[in-house]
Design brief:
heterodimer, A: about 450 residues, alpha/beta, 4-stranded antiparallel beta sheet, globular, B: mainly alpha, about 55% helix, disordered N terminus, binds iron/sulfur cluster
């Protein structure tokens, strides 16, 4: 085993809890009766609908486009009829505009076949990525074609694929790396061609030996001198999958504050985004399906599911046999950075990688107390910040004076709050500080 | 006949009523450490030296400690109630203060002293200065400083010679004046090395006795062995780090070796570390979370400062032992050091500072 990479400062080791789903093959969820397509799937302007009520749509048809600014089109995940242009519940924005499609289960799903892509040039490939509606499915949902067009003054030499999947419970990327390794590697090669470079490094945490083996094999088989893909095993440490920490672990380079990875010659994509790019470019299949992990003691049957974008959480729950009586909290995303939700009516978007149904004994419910100045939060912060100071200032009503502590460098990874023995809600304090402090 | 109910197994509950689930800001999982767990672990680490003290100085060490702990917990309860704050006596921190106050007073004192010490430590030192996390000075050390100022005679003379035959009740009811002795550091300071050797023996016996705890001294400070065991356990649990204990003891050993003898480099570093409250202070008081710096670099400087001041007071000050005052003197420097040696930011935003 080569030496395991990691980032040097901070980080925590929460219980991995991946065993519930790590061994479960990806299962395709049957098409639900209705899909709710949120128009704002990604950072930037939301899509405007290109269909109206009662329109018939086919699988893969464009139903929303972006007229101005950054963005990618939105596609119908299945054939059916548009039943409403309304609003949907949203974990962060409360409600958000959406298109509801009544699906038609009679119509057979579209079959996609391999298309030649090696002969296409950079612009044509980018166009396919954009037309395929591909966004960064692992995180904030940045349109991928934009990320693949870095500013020309920063020469890029390395593509990093993020296979860290450092959040507990989630195994969606893990399973895709095991089951779709060749697709991911080929997706990486498409990206390399777009970027005009030859070096791709895939960072995978060491707790996924089967993924490392499968990806290493696929990389060895498909690598060419022009498109070399290397798997780099990494230590298990949260937040290894955070962009800045990952880049430092793999290349040793530090991305400066507020800068993009391109500033140090790197472009980072998630492994599942690489797969979406493969689908869009090699198969011509737009991004309208999502591999998700549904886990926790609060769901009857944990699973890794392939679902249509727009599937409601309630349909997923019904498919998996319902919730268990222990259910205490539902989290969209991982337990470290995800959002707690209070309704099952929320539809899945392109960036939802998991829904966790957590029992009382899986979550923290303790009350917080005064800071004892143990300094553990400072030790745990990967960004070298002083979360305890931010907390003390916010509690003292001095949130506006917290700029000095670099609150805008905080990416809310939650390491500080995880380790705090006084159980202080440090991420909440930082969020309040960000609202009040001057940049 | 027994009626058998023919109930269908209940269908899985899908649409549970809205809003019954908890909603809060991430992270949704937290480590299983807590303030109470840390504090009670520290208490557990202080129990072996406490039990040993009974065999060294007699049962009254246990009585003094019990009075001190009960007073601290009681004062904390009353103070928090009267200030309208949440009562946190369950978190163990008042218990630690109680044990530590007892540990740093002589074993022959009047039982009133720990009570007064508790009032000073908890009411004034802890709560009037802001409550846990905000107090600048270590409460137990404040209590000792206060007792030194108000009961200077008792605090500097109520020393008992160690028991030789485990007769733990022998000092009960006897007049302290009849048996009182002097601490090794006091003998060394006022009478010199010859008297010290005559009274406490020469190496290696003296090291063994001091390491085990069989020497005059404060209740809980004498057993180097048991204090080290507790300290190592806290290191192992990662509740403390090496930075402060090592620098404090290192500075004491080095400076005592250089300046502690009749000429330069003639002092006895091992004896310096095993004497007085050096070990107890280094592992259980100098690194008190609340009053020491939080940054590692700051902790190194702080530890060196405590060690250096300790030796300075021992050799040049008015008292034979100095670690308590050394820590109290360094306490307010903590925040200065922390402000000066901030952690290195990963990606500082230009102009954001
Ligand atoms: S949430 Fe922010 S302050 Fe806390 S550890 Fe992460 S980056 Fe640091
Ligand atoms: S971890 Fe919690 S208690 Fe410790 S210094 Fe940070 S905020 Fe304070």
């Amino acid at each position: 085993m080569p030496t395991l990479l990691t980032f040097p400062k901070g980080g925590v080791h929460p219980p991995e809890a991946k065993g519930l789903t790590a061994g479960l093959a990806i299962e395709t969820m049957p098409l639900p009766a209705e899909l709710e397509l949120v128009l704002g799937q990604h950072i930037g302007a939301p899509c405007s609908p290109t269909v109206t009520r009662k329109d018939e749509v086919t699988e893969g048809q464009v139903v929303g486009t972006v007229t101005k600014g950054l963005g990618v089109p939105l596609h119908a995940p299945a054939a059916g009829t548009v039943s409403a242009l309304g609003v949907s519940a949203h974990p962060m924005r409360v409600t958000t505009p959406s298109i509801t499609i009544k699906t038609n289960r009679e119509i057979a799903p579209v079959q996609y076949s391999r298309q030649e892509w090696q002969g296409l040039n950079r612009e044509e490939l980018l166009q396919r990525v954009q037309n395929g509606g591909v966004i960064g499915v692992g995180g904030a949902g940045f349109p991928s074609h934009v990320k693949l067009s870095p500013p020309p003054n920063n020469p890029i030499d390395t593509l990093i694929l993020n296979g860290a999947e450092c959040e507990p419970y989630i195994t969606a990327d893990h399973r895709q790396m095991v089951e779709k390794s060749a697709e991911i590697v080929e997706g990486a090669q498409v990206i390399l061609k777009i970027l005009g470079i030859s070096n791709c490094q895939i960072g995978i945490e060491n707790n996924k030996p089967d993924a490392i083996a499968a990806m290493t094999e696929a990389a060895a088989k498909l690598s060419t001198p022009q498109a070399q893909v290397t798997v780099r095993p990494m230590q298990v440490k949260y937040p290894q999958g955070s962009e800045k920490q990952l880049i430092q672990a793999v290349t040793g380079r530090k991305v400066p504050g507020l800068a993009l990875p391109s500033a140090v010659g790197v472009v980072v994509h998630n492994v599942s985004t690489a797969r979406a790019i493969y689908d869009a470019v090699v198969l011509g299949k737009p991004l309208y399906e999502k591999v998700m992990t549904i886990s926790g003691k609060g769901i009857a049957r944990p699973a890794n599911l392939l679902v249509k974008v727009g599937t409601r959480v309630s349909d997923i729950v019904a498919h998996l046999g319902g919730v268990t009586p222990q259910l205490a909290k539902i989290v969209m995303g991982g337990p470290m950075m995800g959002f707690a939700i209070s309704t099952l009516d929320i539809p899945v978007t392109k960036t939802t990688s998991s829904v966790l149904f957590l029992a009382e004994d899986e979550i923290d419910t303790s009350e917080h107390s005064q800071c004892i100045r143990c300094g553990w939060c400072i030790e745990a912060c990967p960004m070298g910040l002083e979360p305890k100071e931010v907390g003390i200032y916010v509690e003292a009503g001095r949130a506006q004076d917290t700029g000095q502590f670099g609150v805008f460098e905080c990416f809310e990874c939650g390491c500080c709050a995880y380790v705090c023995p006084a159980k202080r809600p440090l991420v909440q304090f930082v969020r309040l500080a960000k609202m009040k402090a001057k940049r | 006949m027994i009626a058998i109910s023919q109930q269908e197994p209940e269908a899985p509950e899908v649409a549970a009523p809205r809003g019954i689930w908890k909603v809060s800001v991430s992270p949704h999982v937290k480590s299983d450490e807590s303030v109470a767990k840390i504090m009670w672990t520290v208490v557990a680490c202080l129990v072996p030296p406490l039990i040993l003290s009974v065999f060294i100085f007699g049962i009254q060490t246990l009585i003094i400690t019990a009075i001190s702990v009960a007073s601290c917990v009681g004062v904390e309860y009353v103070t928090q109630k009267s200030l309208g704050r949440k009562v946190t006596i369950g978190d163990g921190s008042a218990v630690i203060t109680g044990i530590l106050i007892a540990f740093i007073i002589p074993p022959g004192v009047n039982y009133l002293l720990p009570v007064l010490g508790a009032v000073m430590a908890i009411y004034i030192g802890k709560h009037l200065l802001g409550g846990i996390g905000y107090n600048i000075f270590n409460p137990a050390l404040l209590a000792r400083a206060f007792l030194m100022a108000t009961f200077p005679v008792a605090m500097t003379s109520a020393w008992l010679p160690p028991l030789q035959d485990l007769a733990i009740f022998s000092y009960l009811g006897t007049s302290i004046d009849a048996v009182a002795t002097a601490t090794p550091l006091a003998v060394l300071k006022t009478q010199g090395m010859a008297a010290f050797t005559q009274q406490f023996g020469a190496a290696p016996n003296v090291y063994t006795n001091f390491f085990l705890g069989w020497r005059p001294g404060c209740i809980g400070e004498t057993s180097g062995l048991f204090i080290l065991l507790g300290g190592c356990y806290l290191l192992y649990r990662r509740y403390i780090t090496w930075h402060i204990p090592v620098t404090v003891l290192g500075a004491i050993a080095l400076l005592s070796w250089i300046f502690g003898g009749s000429g330069y480099f003639a002092g006895d570093p091992l004896l310096a570390v095993l004497s007085g409250g050096a070990l107890l202070g280094a592992f259980f008081m100098a690194n008190d979370y609340v009053t020491c710096p939080t940054g590692r670099k700051a902790q190194l400087i702080y530890g060196l400062g405590v060690g250096a001041l300790t030796v300075l007071i021992r050799l040049k000050g008015g008292y034979p032992e100095g670690i308590c005052y050394a820590i109290l003197l360094m306490n307010p420097v903590s925040s200065v050091l922390d402000n000066w040696l901030k952690p290195e930011r990963f990606a500082p935003v230009q102009g954001g500072a």
